[in-house]
Specification:
The chain has 404 residues and is α/β, with parallel strands linked by helices. The chain is built from ten helices and nine strands. A nine-stranded mixed beta sheet has the order 1-2-3-5-4-6-7-8-9, with helices on both faces. The structure holds beta-D-galactopyranuronic acid.
Amino acid sequence: MKSCLITSILCALMLCGACEQAPVADIHYGAEPLKFKSVKEWEKQHRPAIMAFFENEVYGKMPEKNIPIKAEVLEEGSAFGGKAIRRQVALKVEGSDIPMIVLMYIPSNAKGPSPAFLCMNFKGNHNVNPDPEIIISPNAPDTKNGPEGITRGVASSRWPIEMIIDSGYAVVTVNRDNVDPDSDDGFKNSYHSLFYKEGQSYPEPDEWGTIGMWAWSLSRVMDYMEDDKSIDHKHVAVVGHSRLGKTSLWAGVTDPRFAIVISNNSGCGGAALSIRKHGETVAKINKSFPHWFCDNYNKYNDNEEALKIDQQGLIALIAPRPVYVASASLDDWADPEGEFLSAVNASPVYELYGLKGLTGATMPGINSPLQDGHVAYHLREGKHDITSYDWEQYIKFANRHFGR
Ligand code: GTR
C-alpha cells in the first residue's frame, strides 16, 4: 500500500513537469481526445512519442538516405483556352529507369507565384483530363492494355481543374503507380530497392510500405516546386482521396512544408478511428492491401485495443497547420463518424496553440461543412468519391488560410 502511494506520488510529480522527460513511451493514448497542458508538453514529450509510433508501427519509417533527383521540363504549353500553362516535368531518380512524371496546370494570368493543390492520382496523369498533350504516366493501370487501352480523361469528374485554376490555384499531380504500383509485388517496381542496405531485399518490419513511398514522392514533388518560380511553395495544400487520402495525411505529417493537409474519404488507416471497427478494419485492410503499411501494423489485426494511439494522433501531428477531413454520406466502409471523431479528438492539440478546433462539435448534417477553424470537416452527400463539391470546400478553406 505504502509503496503504491509512493509510486503514485512519483508518477504525479513526473507528469506535472517536475521531471523534464516524462516516461511517455509507455502511455496508452487510445482513441481519446488528446488533452495536454501546454504546447511545450505536447511538442517535447507526446508529439515525438506519437510520431515514433506511427513511424515504427503503422506506415513504416522513411529512409534517411537521400537519392539525387534531377528535374527536367519535358513539355510546356497553353491549356484551358489560354487560362492555364501546362508544364510536365520528369523527376529522374538516380538508379532508376522510371522517372516520376509531374503534371502541372498553373493559372496563366497570375501576378506572381500561384498557390497550389498537390494531389496524387489513381489512374495516370492522362486520366485527369482529356487534354491530348498529357504524357502517359509510366506504369499507369491502363498502360497494361496497350495503346488501344489508354483511357484519357476518364477520371476528369474528380478533377475540376478549370474551376481550381479560375480560383487562382495551380493543380499539380503525379500518378501513384508511376511511383509504386499499387499491388503486392514485393516492391519490385518501386524505388524501395534504391534505399536497401547491403544484402537487403525487402523492407524491415518497421520500414515503409507503399503509402510511405507515395508520401515520400509527394515530398520530392515539393522539392521541385520549391525551385519552380511559378509556384508559391509556401502555400501548397496536399490533398488525396481514399488510399491517397491516407497518403496525403502521412505526407502532411512527415513534411511540414505542406501548409494545409486534406483527407478526402480516407477511412481506415487514414482519418477514421480504428477502435470503432466500423466498415474496414485493420485486419481487413492488411489482408487486402499487405503492401500499404509496414509489416509491424499486422500486430494490430483484430487487436485494435493494443494501438498505443489511434488515428486522431495522426491528425494531431499536423498541428498547428490547418487540416480538413471529409467524408461522404454513403461511404460506410470509410466510417464517416469515425473520421469526424478523429478530427474532434485531435482538436485539443490545435486548441493548445490558440486555434479553433472541433471540440464540442456534433457530427454535422449532410453538406453542412464545419470549416471556420483550423480543423475542418464535412459530410458530402453521396458515395465514396472526390467531387466538385469537395473541391469547392477545399478552395474556400485554402482561401481563408492563405489570406486570399
Ligand atoms: C478500398 C479500400 C479503402 C480505400 C479505397 C480506395 O478498396 O478498402 O481503404 O482506400 O479502396 O482507395 O478507393
